[in-house]
Amino acid sequence: MLGLKLATDPRWVTIVESNIEEILTDHAWCEQKAATNAITIITLNSEHEDLVTDLLKLAQEELEHFEMVHEIIKKRGYKLGRERKDHYVNQLFQFTRNGGNRQQAMVDRLLFSAMIEARSCERFKLLSERIKDPELSQFYRDLMISEAGHYTTFLGFARKYGEGIDVEKRWKALIEFEGEIIKSYGTSETIHG
């Protein structure tokens, strides 16, 4: 369904299990950034009422996920660490066009957002199936379903508002691009690392 070019090596889960506090902190900040991203897209494209409505709900969900991860952190006696840079997201962002028109920028941002949600969904699925912690296994299964919905929301809006742009060609190019950069990841206890 997600169409990712390269699956995450299942050994990544063993790396994650070596430092649960780190993965939870990284995950919390990923959720905060996802909410901020949705709000940014709204800010830049506020003339599209349906997009605003759906992305407001999405941003609220992402903040709820941030809160849920933070509650797990507190319950386990961990501390929410400082915000981390997400090198994968920063590298993926290089795919988006500099210049171009506003519509192209919107489509690229929506596709970029869909890709992040797709990779997160894939990672959450792997965690739900392989992590030995039953609470986290169920937690990541529930979030996987939500991330899949976010992925389809972003991709759907890119297709809807991409009139005159070959959105499918651009999406396939992004899948190829992501498939190359993801080869460098899967070695740290972060959601995208």
TrEMBL record:
Source species, domain of life: Bacteria
GO molecular function: tRNA 2-(methylsulfanyl)-N(6)-isopentenyladenosine(37) hydroxylase activity
InterPro entries per the UniProt record, alphabetical: Ferritin-like (IPR012347), Ferritin-like_SF (IPR009078), tRNA-Hydrxlase_MiaE (IPR010386)
SUPFAM superfamilies: Ferritin-like
GO-annotated biological processes: tRNA modification
Listed PANTHER family: TRNA 2-(METHYLSULFANYL)-N(6)-ISOPENTENYLADENOSINE(37) HYDROXYLASE (PTHR42637:SF1), TRNA-(MS[2]IO[6]A)-HYDROXYLASE (PTHR42637)
Protein name, per record: tRNA-(Ms[2]io[6]A)-hydroxylase
Classification lineage: Bacteria, Pseudomonadati, Bacteroidota, Flavobacteriia, Flavobacteriales
